[in-house]
């Protein structure tokens, strides 16, 4: 196999875009946490407390994703240096480690995306509960032909 400097260089655009995406996720999550903090300071709510462990875990995952992505990029740079220094025998191994780190980073990204969906499901279930309560309160109290309530739970 011909292992030239262009092989690790191929990862640079992908790694750069991934790191940018990871940073954007981190910044968006930071904004959510700051907003929840302000909301909790003004009106403490159990719904906010339910989200804390999810948010904390997601922050840890994103930090791990970023660290592994940066490590992958560092190994790509080291790999290019090894190729330039004519140390081609170890360069493919360093590149393989770089790919493994990127693979783990992407796996963590999938987990974080899944957790993000779980956080949204918490909010959606709260909305559904509120809508159900509102719909129940809006049901009219009707009576059957004998004058008894059709809906005895509401009487």
UniProtKB/TrEMBL annotation:
Q: Any idea which UniProt keywords this protein has?
A: Membrane, Transmembrane, Transmembrane helix
Domain of life, source organism:
Bacteria
Q: Is this entry keyworded Membrane?
A: yes
UniProt cross-references to InterPro entries, sorted A to Z: DUF2721
Transmembrane intervals: 6-28, 65-84, 90-111
The protein's name is: DUF2721 domain-containing protein
């Amino acid at each position: 196999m011909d292992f030239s400097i262009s092989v690790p260089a191929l990862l640079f655009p992908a790694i750069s875009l991934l790191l940018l995406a990871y940073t954007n996720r981190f910044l968006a999550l930071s904004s959510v946490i700051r907003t929840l903090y302000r909301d909790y300071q003004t009106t403490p709510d159990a719904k906010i407390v339910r989200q804390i462990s999810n948010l904390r875990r997601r922050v840890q995952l994103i930090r791990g994703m970023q660290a592994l992505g940066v490590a992958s990029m560092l190994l790509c740079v080291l790999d290019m240096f090894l190729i330039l220094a004519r140390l081609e025998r170890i360069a493919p191994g360093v590149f393989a480690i770089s790919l493994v780190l990127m693979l783990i980073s992407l796996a963590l990204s999938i987990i974080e995306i899944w957790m993000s969906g779980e956080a949204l499901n918490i909010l959606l279930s709260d909305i559904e509960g509120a809508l159900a309560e509102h719909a129940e309160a809006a049901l009219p109290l009707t009576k059957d032909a004998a004058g008894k309530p059709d809906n005895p739970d509401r009487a």
